[in-house]
Amino acid sequence: MNISYSEPLSRAWLRMKILLFRPFDMGIWFALGFTAFLAGLADGAGSQGGNFTNRLKGDSDFEDVGEIARNFGDSTQDFLDTGWGIGLVLLAGMVIIVFGLLALWLSSRGRFMFLDNLVHSRTKVKQPWHEFASLGDSLFLWQIVYTIILLAVVGLCMLMGFSLFAPLIGWDVGWVIAAPLVILAGTISFILFVAMLYIDFFLTAFVVPIMHKERISTMAAWSRFLPLFQENPGSFILCGFFYLLISVLAFFAFMLGGLLTCCVGLILLAIPYVGSVITLPASVTLRYFTLDFLGQFGDDFRLLDPVKDGPRPSPYAPPEDLTDLNHHRAVIGTEDLGEDGSTNEPGPQSGGD
Fold it and tell me: Which residues make beta-bridge pairs with 24?
């Protein structure tokens, strides 16, 4: 099987131009941008990472690290001993969990709403919200279970790392002994991080479209995708790299555009809903790219019809031929109406009385 990466991207770019610019309609942008905003609500729910600007001094050793850890622990204990510290921490934790679950639930629905609008080249909100309620809930519950498992794995690795490094804090050991341990821990962390990114990418890019096409649960969609991945692991892994490359290029393009507008564009990009509307060309192209890429593996995985260059078709246009009747609602023309305008009488007949 000849798997291409440039052709799906080329078709995705054409589909984006037809949907968003032929003709340009701000109503379409704001409606489609709302579903894109919902779909991406949970993307920033994870940790953003720390600020690693501090550099190690030449005489730094594990005693310095131990002193910092002990000072942090003492400060935390003093705060919790005040009485209201524990309550404040618990309240903040509950608020974060509630808002995180709400964002994850809305995002689960939004992914299907955004996908369905792109598949059908429309901008509906209410209909896909209700139509994909059960699939969205299935995706939401799967992500909760996955997050719990992920936190357990990360917690176990942190516990093992602490058990390994804690005895070294009080020992006067050199980097000859510590460096291999640090490299081992960094390698394991990197592998877990990459695996987590790929699972999230496969879920959004391929599992959700399979759920949409076959109307099946998340676990059932994974069972359909995994055999396909096992047959073509390199193709899907390279697709992830290609997707990342496009995302990085799009990010720099928007950053450059924001700087050229004297940072006004950067301010607009920082506004959640407005930012989703502005970045629609990138998000629509990337979503179409993954759908076209998946469609290369057969009709069972194809959600999009062939694209033709030209203006955006009207959503109310009648089907071009009879083979499209299963994709459109029936349209009653004037030739189907009787003399009184009723559809119950036959249309005009040729011939005499």
Answer: 21
